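Researcher: Here's a chain I'd like modeled. Treat it as a single chain, no partners, no ligands.
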Amino acid sequence: MKKTITTLVLTSLLLLSGCDDTKGEGAYANQYNLDHSNYAEVIADLKDKTNKSSEELMLLASAYMGNSGLGLSSLLEIVVENENDGGDEFASFAQKVGQKSSNSAVADTSKAIDHYNQALYQLSSEALKAKLLADGNRTMVDCEADSPLSDTQKDVCLYISISNLTKSSVLLSLIADDLSALGDEHKEDPKMKASSCAMEYAFSTGTYDTKKCTIGGQKKVVFDENGRAYDYFTMSVSGKSFGYLQTGKYTALTKGFCTLDSFASRRETPFSGGYVCPVSEVGDEITVLNTLTTTINSGLDSAKVADDEEMREDIEDFREDIKGNEEGGDVSEEELIDYLGDEEEN
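Model: Modeled as a single isolated chain. Structure tokens:
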């Protein structure tokens, strides 16, 4: 993605700099806290408020992005570093996002995207709301398919796009060690290869690249605090072994290591008696493949509202890189597995 991420971040900063901060004392206070990185105060003030305005939803979404460690100022630092580094833009962006992200980044970016989408719906014209009502009472506006969108809604779509691409980067950083392998045909990251093998093994019920990956350690495990059961296994690549938790046809998103009886034991490095630890301790399970596929597709589709023709072409080029063809359409789960597992072909 030669310029898409840079353009999205810079455009978002320009849009924010033009925001009207004269809409009341509460809005001004929250904008002040947002500008001064007091994200927790904005979240505390707005998260439980009923009947939020579109402005409040936007402020809350921005606060969650900041709380993830990946507010627009942090993203700007990343794209500036990318300009100096050269190389594959998305791979470099994703690597740096992983380094800057907080422990709550997956949950925070998800909440940000949700609130941006709520704001997008609130800003809809009555005609568009009627169309959504007729179409199964939808409350999600499709940035690509639903029209006409106002200029303000198009701006929100760009926020949704950069938030989704940022969340995708956080997810990728949890399943790989060196994301530069995505953009370098001479590199292979053992963890990313193992993760792609694990995703393929779960998704296809047993098939994976046996030439590069070796499975082992299969057992049933249950985490006592939430009662969730998984099929645990390891994948080994180039002499390095990585653990995975399978639930249905997907692998769960994990971060660090913990014992089966205590999430509080979570550590960054392996230890005796510890297993890879699911990110989702309560609430819905977060699985890697379907979440990553949905997030990437949403990020690419939402950016299509941009008036920049070169950026739209860049988006399609990146989609084709992942898909491995020029057929168009969304990235499939199988195509994403291939993209992550066959670095030398990207």
